[in-house]
Design brief:
The strands form five sheets. An eight-stranded mixed beta sheet has the order 3-6-2-1-9-11-12-10, sandwiched between helices. A four-stranded antiparallel beta sheet has the order 13-18-20-19, with helices on both faces. A four-stranded antiparallel beta sheet has the order 15-16-14-17, covered by helices on one side. It is built from 13 helices and 20 strands. The longest helix has 16 residues. The chain has two domains: about 250 residues, Carbamate kinase (3-Layer(aba) Sandwich); about 150 residues, VC0802-like (2-Layer Sandwich). Helix 1 crosses helix 4 and helix 10 runs antiparallel to helix 11. The structure holds adenosine-5'-diphosphate (ADP), aspartic acid (ASP) and magnesium ion. The site of adenosine-5'-diphosphate has 19 residues, from loops.
């Protein structure tokens, strides 16, 4: 008998039939004698609908009220799923985030989980109940409802698994695991039986939305066994068959020796925008003068490039989230006036494509292989950034699909698994 946290995403519970099917799956686990804590998202499309509704009233809605609204989506699905379980003779209880006391900080729309009271959960589990918890939401110290950022139900599930020291946290979605890249863009992408936390963290932070980055961080920090699976497949209880994708600490030594693939996956992000300030004085402190005011406005900066100066001036380019472009451009225009810079250019028709793999550490030449593959397709690289296990490039938005497919085949990912 195991304690398992199972999270079902929007498409997995997008209709009444899907909810019935999820209830059937939970019943099979119960028949085995497992204790189950379930976390659900809102029905697919519901959170987007709520966002649009809020924006039809106010383009920049009050953050507190926005969270009150967004949290309603998950309240619907916890109740419906609990009804479906009760109908099957399974004792189940639904709880909102504030009812199970998922304590968060007060950063509305992107709150961080600080603590979860496990006492009440244990009482329910001891009584043989299935607990159904609303994902993506919590409550701050003053009792305000908070939400955890889009895709945040993954994080709720991992946090509950950590608090309860569950045997496994299973993330059920519409694909049967983590793939070498988004299978919607490259149908030949391969499912990975395993991926390391380190790689998954990079993939998630570079745009692979199959797991929310905070969920991966949390699972790594608290040692939560984490698996991604499809809610559309029959459950597989055979221990000797790979099931979905397991996120692990290390690849087996034997496996990594045999493994030819240097790159585990390709991630991409459509949410970035680029800002360039031209003709700034090339003198000490200029980077600080440009980026300081951006940071002071809580705008995160991703990639940065400063060109080699000529004639005592230089150009400076950096990327921000697309939603921050207009505010960042306004700030930068003020800075440009103060510094006597020539021009400010904003561009949101860009994307970031990244290759990720721990194999990169021990191999030279990966970057040139990447750049050559892109050059052969006539794809111009605007910016580059690297770390130990990833290389990212910024390219024109129109090259997204071509770029991802090109790199996927250049690194032989179709054949690996
Ligand atoms: P859920 O609603 O279940 O949380 P998401 O839409 O958040 O589901 O995440 C699943 C989706 O993530 C898949 O449908 C797939 O298109 C996308 N995805 C992006 N990158 C990957 C990847 N490397 N492997 C698998 N899926 C990926
Ligand atoms: N319903 C929320 C969203 O769409 C949270 C989640 O699905 O994880 O972002
Ligand atoms: Mg998701």
């Amino acid at each position: 008998m195991a304690l398992i946290v199972q999270k079902f995403g929007g498409t997995s519970i997008g209709t009444a039939e899907r909810i019935e099917s999820v209830a059937d799956r939970i019943a099979l686990f119960r028949d085995r004698g497992d204790d189950i804590v379930v976390v659900v998202s809102a029905m697919s499309g519901e959170t987007n609908r709520l966002v649009a509704l809020a924006q039809s009233i106010d383009e920049n809605p009050n953050e507190r009220e926005y969270d009150v609204l967004l949290a309603t989506g998950e309240q619907v699905t916890i109740a419906l799923l609990s009804m479906a379980l009760n109908k099957r003779g399974i004792a189940a209880r639904s709880y909102t985030g504030s009812q199970v006391h998922i304590l968060t900080d007060s950063a509305h729309n992107k709150a961080r989980i600080l603590d979860i009271e496990e006492k009440n959960l244990r009482t329910d589990l001891d009584k043989g109940r299935v607990i159904v918890v609303a994902g993506f939401q919590g409550v701050d110290e003053s009792g305000n409802i908070t939400t955890l950022g889009r895709g945040g139900s993954d994080t709720t599930a991992v946090a509950l698994a950590a608090a309860l020291k569950a045997d496994e946290c299973q993330i059920y979605t519409d694909v049967d695991g983590v793939y070498t890249t988004d299978p919607r863009v490259v149908p030949e992408a391969q499912r990975l039986d395993k991926i390391t936390f380190e790689e998954m963290l990079e993939m998630a932070s570079l745009g692979s939305k199959v797991l929310q980055i905070r969920a991966v961080e949390f699972a790594g920090k608290y040692n939560v066994p984490l698996r991604v699976l499809s809610s559309f497949d029959e459950p597989n209880f055979k221990d000797d068959e790979p099931n979905g994708t397991l996120i692990t600490f290390e690849k087996d030594e034997k496996e990594s020796e045999m493994e030819q693939a240097l790159i585990s996956g390709i991630a991409f992000n459509r949410d970035e925008a680029k800002l360039t300030i031209l003709g700034v004085p090339d003198e000490p402190g200029v980077a600080y003068k440009i980026l300081g005011p951006i940071g002071d406005n809580n705008i995160e900066i991703d990639m940065i490039i400063q060109n080699i100066g000529a004639d005592g001036t230089t150009d400076f380019t950096f990327t921000v989230h697309r939603n921050d472009l207009s505010v960042a451009k306004e700030i930068l225009t003020n800075t440009a006036n103060e510094l006597g810079a020539r021009e400010v250019i904003g561009d949101d028709k860009i994307v970031k494509i990244s290759i990720v793999g721990v194999g990169m550490r021990s191999h030279a030449g990966i970057a040139s292989q990447m750049f050559k593959a892109l050059a052969d397709e006539g794809i111009n690289i605007n910016m580059i950034s690297t770390s130990e296990i990833k290389i990212s490039v910024v390219v024109d938005e129109k090259y997204l699909e071509l770029g991802v497919r090109t790199l996927h085949s250049a690194f032989g990912l179709e054949q690996s698994s």
